[in-house]
Amino acid sequence: MSQHHKNPITELDYDTLKKILDNSFDEIYVTNAEGIVVYVNKAVEKHCGVKAENIIGKSSNEISAQNLWGPRVSPIAIKRKRSFTLEQKTCTGKTLLTTANPIWDQDGNLELVIENSRDITETEGIKFELENSMRMLDHYKLEMEKLRKKELHHPGFICKSKKMTDLLEIAHRIAAVNSTVLLLGESGTGKGIIAKYIHSKSPRKKGPFIPINCASIPTELMESELFGYAKGAFTGANEKGKIGLIDLADEGTLFLDEIGELPLNMQAKLLQVLQNNKYFKVGGREVQTANCRIIAATNRNLKEMVEKDAFREDLYYRLNIFEIEIPPLRERPEEIIPFVHFFLDKFNNKYKVSHTISQNALDVFSKYSWPGNVRELENTIERIVVVNPETIIEDHHLPKHFHEDAAVPSNANTTPDKQIPLDEAINEMEKNIIVKAYKELGSSYEVARVLRTSQSKASRLIRKYCQQDDVVNKSV
């Protein structure tokens, strides 16, 4: 025997209906045809900071006078006889997206206006942050483009020697591939210029060229500078995190100058990047992908550092896929005078002067050994152009040690019985440069500026070589 069940019709009583409406996330605000408020839900109280009993029974004009929110949408919807949406601000600082919907009876008379408002304050904040981020991104792109153009703007190479001509031909061929390059050579020979040249001739030339001097960044900051750090990585960190130089060099070239100064713990992390193209930001858990070419440079003997466990052997061979050794200026003397004229023109234009140089001065330049290489020559020309009041640069305007160096026969210290180890010779040369520069300039700041190195490194070298009075007195 079958049983027939009749589903009862569920009717919502007033209390149930009110409970539903009061628990709506969106606010509901209802007026009659005369503009008198007949109902508001709890969301209205929350958004406007006022009790329902202080709103119901009043006209919209009375309530508007209390400045609880911006202009009501209802009058516009009634006038246009259709739904209308508008953003409003409330006295509690909320941003509402309000839609007013007029209800008409069958005779075309207005019965009710129902306003539905959604709190979009947080959405507005996200929208603002997004717009701000987009503006900042455009700004960073513009700055990166300016930086890229600035970094790639370098003087044309002066190649009057076969050594430099051959070197540039090799650099041009290496530029076409994506492998790492190790640039060797004394300080001031132009390793940075060669790195830019390789980048400018590579498939990555439209990407950024990001240089970093490994000796100028404190050890404790090196990892965050290179890899960046995640949001909240450590106390005092930027709350949004920081982008690292590897990421900045995306689709371009990262130039690691003075790679021999990189701490051992960072050498291990750099090796992972070179081997796997993967890394982690400081405090981060997401694997980052490195998409940049790495060019490294040093004036140190990395092979000897490997033997002394001061540089990782695996990193050395990973960097040394292509090795280019840049000869010192004294081994390409035919380029000295062209460089003199090039830098003289450069600083004449920069300082709005018109200096020329005498043949006697050029002869001294030609005979000088240039331990600081092209950088020393450039700095010397700039200093003379700035401090020399006379139009013609004569030999007596040159530093005293230029004349004494030029007076020493070029083979005076190269006889077999006077040969010394290469590192010792380099250290002696570094000592002479620092002592002479410090005696002439008198401060680590000026030494750093003229020799184009960091002040911290200049201070360390000054402490190393200029502590004893007899050392300074012996310097020229």
UniProtKB/TrEMBL annotation:
Residues 80-132 form the PAC domain. InterPro entries: AAA+_ATPase, AAA_lid_NorR, P-loop_NTPase, PAS, PAS-assoc_C, PAS-like_dom_sf, Sigma_54_int, Sigma_54_int_dom_ATP-bd_1. Residues 157-386 form the Sigma-54 factor interaction domain. The keyword DNA-binding applies. SMART domains: AAA (SM00382). CDD domains: AAA. SUPFAM superfamilies: P-loop containing nucleoside triphosphate hydrolases, PYP-like sensor domain (PAS domain). Residues 13-59 form the PAS domain. It comes from the Bacteria. Keywords: ATP-binding, DNA-binding, Nucleotide-binding, Transcription, Transcription regulation. Pfam families: AAA_lid_14, PAS_9, Sigma54_activat. PANTHER family: C4-DICARBOXYLATE TRANSPORT TRANSCRIPTIONAL REGULATORY PROTEIN DCTD (PTHR32071:SF57), TRANSCRIPTIONAL REGULATORY PROTEIN (PTHR32071). NCBIfam families: sensory_box. This is Sigma 54-interacting transcriptional regulator.
